[in-house]
């Protein structure tokens, strides 16, 4: 192959040098006709080239309009503050806001499970603060009524979505609460419960990584299992049965915590983990199944209170307004 190419080149050079050979389309004739030849054969191409170049420089954006896409391109590889600045450029049309100026811009926050008992109280708090809130809920235990009072507020958005499926949103913070929390509810479909905790958390952490959002996982006191230490310090690792009827929830949440920490260590995601204990308060379903609502409902109906087991079990309870920050 190589030798053949060399041979062809040599043939061509020879032809150029041979002034007696008849002119062909690739080869200019003798010098007497050269100018005429150039005008006839080369000038149209020259003019075409000039026209293309002129069109190119005419269509090229001026430096001021080209700057925005350039920064936009950079922002995908940069940390969150740059993206915040760019968002302000688009929405407020006031020019760039220095990165260091915090609290000026509305935060965009997604709350998974935001139509639930705890989630909806958190949403109230964020809305009060003036944040822009997107609630993602599949309404398995959550209810639209819990967030109905925010409908029509331009800062509020409600999406029916199951976190087991990925979702793409542009947000600054993710509060990940989606999962049935009462034993009667999470035992109803244990495979779905662990899937929500593992796949759902993975999806939301993936979202956090993609958009550079800060991530809060609501975990549970159940990660301590049947604790051998009282009260449980955060450093206590628990005493959990991996094959028990509660495992879908407690092992699911333990895995969710593992995922959060691995995304933090491996991908630099800023994460928070809150281990929530037994919580009660307004918007708790009457059929929630947890002890406080059961006892209250039974008392209201003047029925005897049902105490499971020997009644010697202990719990830490908190009112919901003490939970939200
Ligand atoms: O009617 C009832 C209900 C519950 N109980 C008992 O009361 C205790 C509390 O049970 P709950 O059903 O309220 O729920 P648990 O405290 O076991 O877990 C709950 O609290 C911690 C949260 O993080 C979990 O999401 C939630 O499952 C248990 O020992 C349970 O057996 C009763 O004696 N009677």
From TrEMBL:
<keyword id="KW-0520">NAD</keyword>
<feature type="compositionally biased region" description="Low complexity">
    <location>
        <begin position="20"/>
        <end position="31"/>
    </location>
</feature>
<keyword id="KW-0325">Glycoprotein</keyword>
<dbReference type="GO" id="GO:0000139">
    <property type="term" value="C:Golgi membrane"/>
</dbReference>
<keyword id="KW-0812">Transmembrane</keyword>
<feature type="domain" description="NAD(P)-binding">
    <location>
        <begin position="111"/>
        <end position="323"/>
    </location>
</feature>
<comment type="similarity">
    <text>Belongs to the NAD(P)-dependent epimerase/dehydratase family. UDP-glucuronic acid decarboxylase subfamily.</text>
</comment>
<keyword id="KW-0333">Golgi apparatus</keyword>
<keyword id="KW-0456">Lyase</keyword>
<dbReference type="GO" id="GO:0042732">
    <property type="term" value="P:D-xylose metabolic process"/>
</dbReference>
<feature type="transmembrane region" description="Helical">
    <location>
        <begin position="43"/>
        <end position="60"/>
    </location>
</feature>
<comment type="pathway">
    <text>Nucleotide-sugar biosynthesis; UDP-alpha-D-xylose biosynthesis; UDP-alpha-D-xylose from UDP-alpha-D-glucuronate: step 1/1.</text>
</comment>
<dbReference type="GO" id="GO:0033320">
    <property type="term" value="P:UDP-D-xylose biosynthetic process"/>
</dbReference>
<keyword id="KW-0472">Membrane</keyword>
<dbReference type="InterPro" id="IPR036291">
    <property type="entry name" value="NAD(P)-bd_dom_sf"/>
</dbReference>
<protein>
    <recommendedName>
        <fullName>UDP-glucuronic acid decarboxylase 1</fullName>
        <ecNumber>4.1.1.35</ecNumber>
    </recommendedName>
</protein>
<keyword id="KW-0210">Decarboxylase</keyword>
<dbReference type="GO" id="GO:0048040">
    <property type="term" value="F:UDP-glucuronate decarboxylase activity"/>
</dbReference>
<dbReference type="Pfam" id="PF16363">
    <property type="entry name" value="GDP_Man_Dehyd"/>
</dbReference>
<keyword id="KW-1133">Transmembrane helix</keyword>
<dbReference type="InterPro" id="IPR016040">
    <property type="entry name" value="NAD(P)-bd_dom"/>
</dbReference>
<keyword id="KW-0735">Signal-anchor</keyword>
<dbReference type="GO" id="GO:0070403">
    <property type="term" value="F:NAD+ binding"/>
</dbReference>
<comment type="function">
    <text>Catalyzes the NAD-dependent decarboxylation of UDP-glucuronic acid to UDP-xylose. Necessary for the biosynthesis of the core tetrasaccharide in glycosaminoglycan biosynthesis.</text>
</comment>
<feature type="region of interest" description="Disordered">
    <location>
        <begin position="1"/>
        <end position="32"/>
    </location>
</feature>
<feature type="compositionally biased region" description="Polar residues">
    <location>
        <begin position="1"/>
        <end position="16"/>
    </location>
</feature>
<dbReference type="InterPro" id="IPR044516">
    <property type="entry name" value="UXS-like"/>
</dbReference>
<dbReference type="GO" id="GO:0032580">
    <property type="term" value="C:Golgi cisterna membrane"/>
</dbReference>
